[in-house]
């Protein structure tokens, strides 16, 4: 029996180093909530100080995406060590970039809609914030599926293969 066969879990059994789907989903959702909270504080603060919806949502998205990467990578998907640029970072940026465009786009559209309505102050911030949150909710499951199946797929096998080399 080879060491690769002995180390592999039986078919249908999750590996100990890679949490099962529901655990990953819960952990990804939790890290997303943390990131969304950071984004929300950033968005509301920037809007309060007079930033445009486009600028505020773009900066807010980045402010949350950075800690979300590290939380999700290590906690939800169990990745450790230096990430591979072509296999992990570039696909992650593509998935997150699409989610960011959705957030910025929806918030910008909400800004355009509220402009002629002369909604201002706190009410406008609430409307823009609701649009920003709605975009996060709309893309979370798709983003999770892409991260799970494309970006962080096969992580345990990759680490095991590179550690034997």
TrEMBL record:
The chain crosses the membrane at residues 25-49, 55-72, 92-113, 125-147. It is a multi-pass membrane protein. The lineage of its organism: Bacteria, Bacillati, Actinomycetota, Actinomycetes, Pseudonocardiales. It is found in: Membrane. It holds the Pfam family GtrA_DPMS_TM. InterPro entries: GtrA_DPMS_TM. This is Putative flippase GtrA. Keywords: Membrane, Transmembrane, Transmembrane helix. One of its GO terms (biological process) is polysaccharide biosynthetic process. The keyword Transmembrane applies. It comes from Saccharomonospora amisosensis. Residues 32-152 form the GtrA/DPMS transmembrane domain. GO terms for cellular component: membrane.
């Amino acid at each position: 029996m080879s060491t690769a066969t002995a180390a592999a879990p039986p078919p249908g059994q999750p590996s100990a180093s890679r949490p099962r789907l529901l655990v990953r989903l819960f952990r990804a959702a939790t890290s997303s909530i943390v990131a969304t909270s950071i984004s929300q504080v950033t968005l509301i603060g920037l809007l309060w100080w007079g930033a445009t919806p486009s600028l505020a949502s773009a900066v807010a998205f980045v402010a949350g995406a950075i800690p979300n990467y590290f939380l999700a990578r290590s906690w939800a998907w169990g990745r450790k060590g230096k990430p591979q640029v072509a296999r992990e970072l570039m696909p992650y940026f593509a998935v997150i970039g699409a989610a960011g465009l959705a957030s910025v786009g929806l918030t910008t559209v909400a800004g355009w809609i509220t402009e002629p309505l002369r909604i201002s102050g706190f009410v406008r911030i609430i409307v823009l914030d609701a649009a920003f949150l709605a975009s996060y909710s709309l893309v979370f499951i798709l983003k999770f599926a892409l991260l799970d199946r494309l970006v962080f797929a096969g992580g345990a096998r990759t680490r095991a293969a590179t550690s034997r080399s």
